Amino acid sequence: MRLLFLGDVVGRAGRDAVSERLPGLVRDYRFDFVVVNGENASHGKGLTEPHFNELRAAGADVVTLGDHAFDQRDTQSFIAREPTLLRPVNMAQGAPGRGANLIEGRNGHRVLVINALGRVFMPPIDDPFRAVEAAIAACPLGEQADAVVVDFHTEATSEIQGMGFFLDGRASLVVGTHTHIPTADHRILKGGTALVADAGMCGDFDSIIGVEPDEPLNRFLTGIPQGRFTPAEGEATLCGVAIETDATSGLAVRVSPVRIGGTLAQALPAL
Ligand SMILES: [Fe+2]
Ligand SMILES: [Fe+2]
After folding, report:
1. How far is CA 57 from CA 36, 54, 61, 212, in A?
2. Nearest one of 52, 26, 10 to 242, comparing CA atoms
3. pTM: predicted TM-score of the whole model, two decimal places
4. Distance 177 CA to ligand 2 centre (A)
5. N or C: at which end does the chain have fewer Cβ atoms within 10 angstroms?
6. Which numbered ligand comes closest to the C-alpha of 153?
7. What confidence score (pLDDT) does residue 271 get?
């Protein structure tokens, strides 16, 4: 099967790019399943219900979150009734919603999607490795699940690579999110797990990780806040990773980065 993962959607620019481009991508590349990280979709902070519905309507089978999961107040209520919206699995016990779920895609494939938060350069949280391992043990790849996708939301690329090697042979794709900067290390590990340290964002790259540069730059220079962070609203680049899996094992046989439109669109350099 063919899976598409899109990194953190940032603000209106990111949402518009997903709405405009995702339906055509699904059609042209025959994606069976799409996961989109939506933790910054609503003005850069969290995800409202209308914006969640927007991402779903564009073709996201599952929407994942991260450290901004509950920045919008209403998320606590609507996440409970949305099986296709996932917050990090290793949040405190009793957190609203769920961190992993087996979802059937448009062509009948069953995909286990897991969202987890890392611990390196991140606020304290439960062990993501054991939490993800428990979710996979309850729904193993090649048995209940035709594919397993882990969105590991954290700052350090080493921690994400650690998760990749930890799950090698047990997940179809381990992909990092959170830094908003796409990495160029996409590969398939020896056991058959596709790994990429960060998917990058769906947002305007004429910015500092999706934010208009003036205020973040001011804070780097002076340490004194002068205003709010404002999502940049120029044309977004759609960033992510696509994989193809083996029909029997569910492991990856191909992996490819995705960067479409905007400042970071991929193109051959002029020779
Ligand atoms: Fe984040
Ligand atoms: Fe983010």
Report:
1. 12, 5, 9, 28
2. 26
3. 0.98
4. 7
5. C
6. 1
7. 62
